[in-house]
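4.2 Preliminary Data

To establish feasibility before requesting continued support, the project team ran the inverse folding procedure on a target of 187 residues. The structure was first converted into the token representation described in Section 3, and no sequence information of any kind was made available to the design step. The complete token record follows.
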């Protein structure tokens, strides 16, 4: 996470609005402690949490992954250049059992955000998330369970799903084995 310095970017947005941690927490629905941990780069928030924070500050989620470079019309990210966002933590402070990599972090003003999700363990809790936008998931490796509102949909290697992100959702490893998923999220 420190490669992107997401926490410092959130703190800069908060200070620019002259807001306290408590005010941001109240407006976003997250605890002041979680906002503080994110700002200090102690934990990595799930994509849904970043999406809500981005919406609150009226910025695109890609801003958190962007490098401070000039705007380009295209971008090539080599496999060795990808940066993993580890230690994804829930509101309750528990591990979510996955990590993700931004597959586009130089191009700004994007309409979609591509990520490579790796679900490496069976999650201890099955809490779900929702946020604005839409999502497309393509299972590249393994078998996953997608919690989507009141449904549990099993997705096998090669399967894909497109859904409204306002639906409560969460991707889990079906059997505790590693799952790799291409995820594309819009705001």
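Position-by-position output of the design step:
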């Amino acid at each position: 996470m420190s490669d992107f310095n997401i926490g410092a970017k959130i703190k800069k947005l908060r200070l620019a609005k002259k807001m306290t941690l408590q005010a941001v927490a109240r407006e976003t629905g997250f605890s002041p402690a979680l906002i503080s941990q994110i700002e200090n780069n102690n934990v990595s928030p799930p994509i849904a949490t970043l999406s809500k924070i981005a919406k609150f500050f009226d910025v695109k989620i890609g801003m958190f992954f962007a490098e401070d470079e000039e705007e380009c019309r295209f971008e090539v990210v080599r496999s060795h250049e990808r940066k993993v966002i580890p230690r994804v933590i829930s509101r309750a402070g528990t591990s979510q059992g996955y990590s993700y990599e931004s597959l586009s972090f130089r191009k700004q003003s994007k309409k979609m955000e591509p990520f490579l999700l790796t679900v490496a363990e069976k999650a201890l809790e099955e809490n779900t998330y929702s946020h604005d936008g839409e999502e497309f998931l393509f299972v590249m490796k393994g078998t996953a369970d997608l919690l989507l509102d009141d449904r549990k949909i099993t997705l096998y290697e090669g399967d894909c799903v497109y859904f409204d992100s306002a639906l409560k959702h969460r991707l889990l490893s079906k059997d505790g084995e590693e799952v790799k998923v291409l995820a594309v999220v819009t705001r």
